[in-house]
From TrEMBL:
<feature type="domain" description="Methyltransferase putative zinc binding">
    <location>
        <begin position="4"/>
        <end position="63"/>
    </location>
</feature>
<protein>
    <submittedName>
        <fullName>Methylation protein EvaC</fullName>
    </submittedName>
</protein>
<dbReference type="InterPro" id="IPR013691">
    <property type="entry name" value="MeTrfase_14"/>
</dbReference>
<dbReference type="Pfam" id="PF13489">
    <property type="entry name" value="Methyltransf_23"/>
</dbReference>
<dbReference type="Pfam" id="PF08421">
    <property type="entry name" value="Methyltransf_13"/>
</dbReference>
<dbReference type="Pfam" id="PF08484">
    <property type="entry name" value="Methyltransf_14"/>
</dbReference>
<dbReference type="InterPro" id="IPR029063">
    <property type="entry name" value="SAM-dependent_MTases_sf"/>
</dbReference>
<dbReference type="InterPro" id="IPR038576">
    <property type="entry name" value="Methyltransf_Zn-bd_dom_put_sf"/>
</dbReference>
<dbReference type="InterPro" id="IPR013630">
    <property type="entry name" value="Methyltransf_Zn-bd_dom_put"/>
</dbReference>
<feature type="domain" description="C-methyltransferase">
    <location>
        <begin position="244"/>
        <end position="401"/>
    </location>
</feature>
Amino acid sequence: MSTCRICRGPVYQFFDFGQQPISDAFRKPEDTSEEFFFHMAIGVCQQCTMVQLMSEVPREKMFHEEYAYHSSTSARMQEHFAGTALRLLETECRDVADPLVVELGCNDGIMLRTVAERGVRHLGVDPSANVAEVAASKGVRVRVAFFEESVAKEIRASEGPAQVIYAANTVCHIPYLDSIFRGVDALLSPTGVFVFEDPYLGDIVERASFDQIYDEHFYLFSATSVQAAARQFGFDLVDVERLPTHGGEIRYTIGRPEHRRPTERVAELIAEERERGIDTLATLEQWGTEVKRNCGDLVTLLRKLKDEGATVYAYGATAKSATVTNYAGIGPDLVAGVFDSTPGKQHRLTPGAHLPVRPLEEFTTPYPDYLLLFAWNHAEEIIKREQAFREQGGKWILYVPDVHLL
């Protein structure tokens, strides 16, 4: 048992993934230095229902000048974030004089680029200098830093209050959520909103998508746990929206209760979570049983294909694939390598499992017999793009919500 980072209640462990590496630490083949591993177990708070990792990885080991993930590599995500930016400008900034939009974890500027193009004041805050440099090259104003209370106060002093503070796939990364909320309190205007979208616990439970849990994802949010956290810091959860991105997410809108009233969607989703029992220890332990079965089925299939002499590669050197390969014990003996479009990952080895990462340009005939799709959350976009692979007899291997072939 541990103590909740949010409410100090008791946290009970429900699954143990064993030793895991930094999920975006792609190593050069000649690098023989000792690789960092940490013990990754996950638990649920019995008081506020927040699902969280049992131990914290130092943030400097995950987010730095060589951070490998670039949001703009997906056409689908470019469309998503452009639409998000336009919507926020229309609904939250239209009637505000000279509004300021601040994004936490702006990455390569995929969302703020649209804000900048509309001439709206903005600022991205991201600790990874390499992706921040890309954002700046697109006309986005960026501050290289970890967002926390002290940084928020400095921004308020120089820029004034923010009408919108936005984050995508970022807030769940941050163990020190208390400092985030205090920073939001310091920076946000009285009528402003804090909007963030992250993987949804309900979808992770329903689909057994265990690879959504890795070093960067310290929290797995539900509407119930986000409401409890917001209220602890003087805010309230005022809206929720289901999103199809990344295998199922929720967009949470946080506001000051004296200026914002919750929509009916909030009460409806919390009631649904209560009925499903998604955050109960019994449900989460049953989820763990399904995860073990899926991993066993995947390894059994890969060994069978190896014995039959089939060639098997993977597609998408994602951060979450580190959980799959290291927990299930999938190495180069079962999967020959991974095709990926990110230059910073190519010609390197995946964390822990050391699968060679090959440029996507090398994914040509002769195609492998099978492709293990690590980037399953972009399955529709990828499979459509790689039609030639299937036309020549190739088959995709997926493991969410169970192991199956396409």
